[in-house]
Amino acid sequence: MALEVVLGIDIGGTYTKIGLVDREGSIHFEDEISTRGYATIEEFIHALHSHVMQSLEQIETSFLLLGIGVGAPNGNYYEGTIENAPNLAWKGRIEFVKLMENQFHLPILVTNDANAAALGEMLFGGAGDMKNFVMITLGTGLGSGLVVNGDIIYGHDGFAGELGHVLVYDHGRQCGCGKRGCLEAYVSATGIKRTVYEMMAEENIESDFRKIPFSKLKPKMITALAEDGDPIAIKAFERTGYLLGRALADTVAHISPARIFLFGGLAKAGKWIIDPAKKSMEEHLLPIYQNKIDIVPSALLKKNIAVLGAAALIWKRLDKKTGN
To answer: What is the distance between the alpha carbons of residues 312 and 117, in angstroms, rounded to a whole number?
Structure first.
């Protein structure tokens, strides 16, 4: 009997990752291609199709491909589009699902990467028994997937849940979206790097950061220096966690989640980001919400949540059809 699988695709600004995922969340095949170097979206989809078909031909296991789920920046689940994605070469409104279906002749669903990560956590991670939770992705930017009553909140236009672009400072740092003072400009891998260098400019504290160029600094290096007691690393996490917790307190007031999951490079800092975020959140919560909500790392932190989450789009749809 053929194994039923879904193809999960995560489109990033540099690479596009693909994987075959079964109903239990096991990945039977993984690969990636470059996202860059294609003048049009049609050229990219053609190259993606060719690569996928060639790769699938090499798999010895008999399988039945049920559909393709795609996580993409500014992916609109309702419309099947990618719209004005800042880190992709193709601008404007892209009729992505139509173009993919014309090429692959399979059911296709698309959403943004944070929503896909939330679905991955729901089906294959630590949120399996939860109907209300929040997924925060802390990478180059800050993404969020909000789940209420077992479903992703998409809003009326498909773009709900952009916590990374709530205002935390009037006339603050410029964000990649063009606005100033967005949470993402402070709470993200890029944001905490900016905080580190601002602190070095503000204070005459001895720190190993003074030996590291901005372009070479990675979140794991900030965590390592915090572990070594570097005062700037510790203070940078405290500032970052404070802002994250304050914003999460607002989110709790909106949807009252049972748990908040963190994923991404900055989430791997563990207690250094979670402890100050939890403290700040509790300080800013209405008393009826206090001491009810944990902030925890994603259970898929060491797995390819991007591919799992994209595949979960199709599995979730199939579950609804069968009533599971």
So the answer is: 9
Three-state secondary structure call for residue 170: coil
CATH code at position 228: 3.30.420.40
Residues 286 and 310 in one domain: no
Q: Would you say 200 and 158 are in contact if contact means Cβ atoms under 8 Å apart?
A: no
- Could you report the per-residue pLDDT of 13-65, keeping only the tens digit for each? 888 999 999 999 999 889 999 999 999 999 999 999 999 999 888 887 888 99
Asked if residue 125 is part of any domain, the answer here is no
Q: Would you list the DSSP string of 195-209?
A: HHHHHHHH-----GG
In-domain check, residue 97: yes
Using the 8-state DSSP alphabet, how is residue 173 labeled? P
State pLDDT tens for residues 59-93: 878 889 999 999 998 999 999 999 988 778 898 99
Domain of residue 190 covers 130-297
How much is the pTM? 0.91
76: which DSSP letter?
E
Do 96 and 192 fall into the same domain?
A: no
Same domain, yes or no: 115 and 162: no
Question: Encoding tokens for residue 126?
Answer: 């630590």
Number of domains present in the structure of the chain:
2
Q: Within a 10 A sphere around the Cβ of 104, how many other Cβ atoms?
A: 18
The distance of Cα 242 from the centroid of its chain, to the nearest Å, equals 20
